[in-house]
Amino acid sequence: MNSTHHPRYARHRFPAEVISHAVWLYFRFPLSLRMVEEMLAARGILVSHETVRQWALKFGQDFANQIRRRLPAAGDKWHLDEVVISIAGRKHWLWRAVDQHGIVLDILVQSRRNAKAAKRLLRKLLKKQGITPRVMITDKLASYGAAKREIMPGVEHRQHKGLNNRAENSHQPTRRRERIMKRFKSAGQAQRFLSVHDQVANFFRHPANTGAADRRFARARAFQAWSEITGAVAVA
């Protein structure tokens, strides 16, 4: 493995390739910090799980921000959904928006499931995306309609549980991570982790109906872009 000395990793004992690979493993797959530690140890790289956690905290959001800038513009059909998560014994709600292609647009962890919470999500989406959708699809929660009438009055709103499978399915990776992590420790931790996790998933997501050659080509492009984002060469 060739080591890259990128200024982003100044004063770090390990080279860019090791740090970026550890961060990729942690956010890309349903792995605990100790699992990542063991996978690195299998390559002869001895780091503690706490070091991996610190790398994820320091570099994860920056990588996610760069991924967001490289993704294509959001589709014109937004699917919104919310799912309950337990944090420190209290009920919270994870609000998520995806477009018709399955790309996660944004997430928001909140303690309420009401119109005020729905408005916060819509405002955040509009600020991040810079555009309004043609259609908004939700379940029959009345809070969505109230928020839409105030924030995006001209957008078509379809409320039907059967139409919103795309948003509901996007919660499944979160459920897997929640089990591996033995639940999130705080709302802030959940927000920070999922904000990075979903963007990394977007970047390496490939449509299921494409052929093997196309998937390999798309994956190679994603790895090349990841190397550019992290300032590291691929780990061999």
From TrEMBL:
DDE domain residues are: 76-206
- List all membrane-crossing ranges: none
**Keyword flag Coiled coil:** no
Which InterPro entries does the record match to this protein?
DDE_dom, IS_Transposase, Transpos_IS6
Q: Which GO molecular-function terms appear in the entry?
A: DNA binding
What Pfam families does this protein's entry cite?
A: DDE_Tnp_IS240
| Coiled-coil spans in chain | none
Name the keywords, alphabetized: DNA recombination, DNA-binding, Transposition
Q: Which GO terms describe its biological process?
A: DNA recombination; transposition
UniProt keyword rRNA-binding, yes or no? no
Annotated protein name in UniProt: Transposase
